[in-house]
Amino acid sequence: MSEKATSLSDLGLYGLIEHFQKQYKPLNTSELPAMGEDACSILTAPEHLSSTTLLLEGINFDLTYTPLQHLGFKAVTVAVNDLLAMNASPSQISINIGLSNKITLEMLETLMSGIFAACEHYQTELTAFKPAASLTGLTMALNVTGKENKKGLVRRSGAQPTDVICVTGDLGGALMGLHLLEREKRVLQSNDHSQPVFGDNEYVLKRQLKPEGRTAFLTAMEKLDLVPTSMTGISEGLATSLILLCRSSKTGCRIYENKIPLHQNTLKAARELNYNPLIAALNGGEDFELLFTLSLEVYEKNKEGLPEEVSVIGHITEEDKACRMISNADDEIDIKARGWGNLNI
Amino acid sequence: MSEKATSLSDLGLYGLIEHFQKQYKPLNTSELPAMGEDACSILTAPEHLSSTTLLLEGINFDLTYTPLQHLGFKAVTVAVNDLLAMNASPSQISINIGLSNKITLEMLETLMSGIFAACEHYQTELTAFKPAASLTGLTMALNVTGKENKKGLVRRSGAQPTDVICVTGDLGGALMGLHLLEREKRVLQSNDHSQPVFGDNEYVLKRQLKPEGRTAFLTAMEKLDLVPTSMTGISEGLATSLILLCRSSKTGCRIYENKIPLHQNTLKAARELNYNPLIAALNGGEDFELLFTLSLEVYEKNKEGLPEEVSVIGHITEEDKACRMISNADDEIDIKARGWGNLNI
């Protein structure tokens, strides 16, 4: 065996996926499965999709400030979002859960009540519940199965030069919510008598603690007979999603700093935290919005009637133009994915 | 919120599943989903099945004595087994993996080579690989999707009184392998210079470290045109599987101590470890054999031609007869499931 010891952080998250994708020899197809897509098609039942999400204590959530009911709801949202990101609707969910001995039945009931509420919200049947013991904190693996929407699946790989780049909702809020919670945790740890002070930051706290997937947006697009040329979820910041979409589509892109949608409460929290809200939008995570492209023709025909949550942030270019953002000072800045970034591996 | 703090171990593993199964209100069916089945049907694509397996360091494996390549192979076996246990064949697998910073690229390559080998062994395409950082040890979530075999799914719930109870292979070996490894770990920890001594215990070590699912058995049964009336996997000991099968089928059972298949190497290792091999078979785990029932008529017609790995261990009774084992001394002993048992929650 080799004595080399290469750190995983040398490759980064997506480098690691590509590394093993190249090593794997498919059994039945000449094509490599798209191992890094948001969800994967069920080979024996095309039109159907499956995606698994793994959530680990200390990485994906901190039980010191996360209400268990919200955690249950959010876990389902994270899982469901991978299907939404391909224009599919979830129909059932299974949950495997590793329980440490600090978790009581009452705590688990609170967590499960959030999962049940999310199942109802997303009209998704819970079909498996597999508890197990854990020595290493609360661990959840959620599998979501569903079906493509009427207009068919939308993949990351369909963007073409001149396509218009759009996002739903606003970005960076979930990260600002996280930083507020982390700040309050430090205050609480240093002073037993103080109470958390969230002021009027409910919006960003809700973005962090109880995000909701964009099901209504997909329904609206279907009613308008609009099909994106490509789409992906924004779970690890706009920069990562843009680069994945452009790499899959073999294109470049230009986005505009002043077009990136930032909520006024995100801007306010960012000021309070002395944090650059643009960095939060580009490299933050967990906004659970959708990034998609429309052909220029379709966009021009429908621009007045797009769902109100849509913002146009730029356009797709030829691949050799790279992925860049035009800053407010009119500079072209390379867009970089954060890889493992703040995951501390 | 309630101030009660009920320990999860008061309910036991299957008590916990039933607890939440009763609390859940299904969306679209009047029937409660069978949340504890080995795998679940895909609601939007009947005939197709999905199952997720969560494997946690310190609970499901110990990296101090588990070769990473075997761990990769075994992880796929554990996942695939849930589909085999319902008479289905796996067609694709996805893996989410939480990686702690002690895992190097070279270690991950060894683990993945075992996963790749198992994918080839089970003719199952790897369609998603999602790595993430973990602060709490190596964590794997594997989802397997597949399709029912030609004769259709076999559930736990189909057993009828007078049906013959069968198992594949032999039982208790994997637990004896585990105890040998644990013993060697203690020796190695107390003395840096000693080497592990496995003697001629390769059989039970392989049962623990590199188990294989019973795909060939299912193919053989299909060729013989034989369909079990009920079936489940034996992953947590014969006792738990028998009780789950009888509870689902609303029956009791009688099995015979002297019919339980024990490999001669399991008996030998049990002597060496001063362990009761019957307890290993009933309450051990990870044998990954199949427990199934045949109608008496079908059994009588085919008993000479059954696949050689099949042992008949007893018969199904009416529910009020309970689940009991006839000992070699002709006593009737209640069969008890171990619940969380050695999971130390």
Task: Please tag this protein with its features.
12 strands, ThiL-like (chains A, B), transferase (chains A, B), Phosphoribosyl-aminoimidazole Synthetase, Chain A, domain 2, thiamine biosynthesis (chains A, B), homodimer, nucleotide-binding (chains A, B), 34% helix, 60s Ribosomal Protein L30, Chain: A, globular, 2 domains, alpha+beta
What is the structure about, briefly put?
2 copies of one chain form a homodimer. The first copy, chain A, has 345 residues and is an alpha+beta fold.
Give structural notes:
Chains A, B: Belongs to the thiamine-monophosphate kinase family. Chains A, B: Catalyzes the ATP-dependent phosphorylation of thiamine-monophosphate (TMP) to form thiamine-pyrophosphate (TPP), the active form of vitamin B1. Chains A, B: It catalyses: thiamine phosphate + ATP = thiamine diphosphate + ADP. Chains A, B: Pfam families: AIRS. 2 copies of one chain form a homodimer. Chain A is an alpha+beta fold and 345 residues long. The first copy, chain A, has 2 domains: 111 residues, PurM-like, N-terminal domain (60s Ribosomal Protein L30, Chain: A); 188 residues, Phosphoribosyl-aminoimidazole Synthetase, Chain A, domain 2, CATH 3.90.650.10. In chain A, 34% of the residues lie in helices and 23% in strands. Chain A has 10 helices and 12 strands. In chain A, the strands form 2 sheets. Chain A has a 7-stranded mixed sheet, with helices on both faces. A 5-stranded mixed sheet of chain A has the order 1-2-5-3-4, with helices on one face. In chain A, strand 3, helix 3 and strand 4 form a beta-alpha-beta unit. The relative contact order of chain A is 0.16. The C terminus of chain A is likely disordered. At the A-B interface, helix 1, strand 1, strand 2, strand 3 and helix 3 of A face helix 1, strand 1, strand 2, strand 3 and helix 3 of B.
